[in-house]
Amino acid sequence: MPEPLGIHEHGYTCREIVDLAAEYVEGTLTANESTLFELHLNFCDGCLTFIDQIRDTARLAAHVAEHELPEPLRADLLQAFRDWTRA
User: Fold this and answer.
1) Domain coordinates of the chain in residue numbers?
2) CATH entry, 9-86, from 3.40.50, 1.10.10, 3.40.120, 1.10.3470
3) What is the model's pTM?
4) pLDDT, position 29
5) What does the pLDDT look like over 29-87, one tens digit per residue?
6) What is the CB-side half-sphere exposure of residue 77 using CA atoms within 13 A?
7) How far apart are CA 28 and CA 73, in angstroms?
8) CA distance 5 to 13
């Protein structure tokens, strides 16, 4: 991702945080990107809550094997991912 748009005075914008959330949680952002990301989180409770929810979801999902999901739930999740598009 390029440098922040500069629209938000505290690192990235909320939209940019959403776009970079997975990379941040997985630890794949550069040091500079992580710094800007965390700067935003220091000033935005909504984004901090969002990142906490992603971390919790990833932690919980890591304990569930695919074969443990009921078939209707598995089908619904797969369809939701297929239907998801970036706006």
Assistant:
1) 9-86
2) 1.10.10
3) 0.69
4) 95
5) 999 999 999 999 999 999 999 999 999 988 888 888 878 889 999 899 888 878 876 54
6) 8
7) 30
8) 8
Neighbours of 12 (CB within 10 A): 27
Across residues 4-33, what is the average pLDDT?
A: 84
Encoded tokens for 31:
């040091």
Would you say the C-alpha torsion 73, 77, 78, 82 has a positive or negative sign? Answer: positive
Report whether 11 contacts 40 (CB < 8 A): yes
User: What digits encode the pLDDT tens for the residues 4-13?
Assistant: 555 556 789 9
Sequence-distant (6+) residues with CB within 8 A of 11 are 4, 35, 36, 37, 38, 39, 40
HSE-CB for 10 with a 13 A CA cutoff:
12
Strands, E, within the chain: which ranges?
none
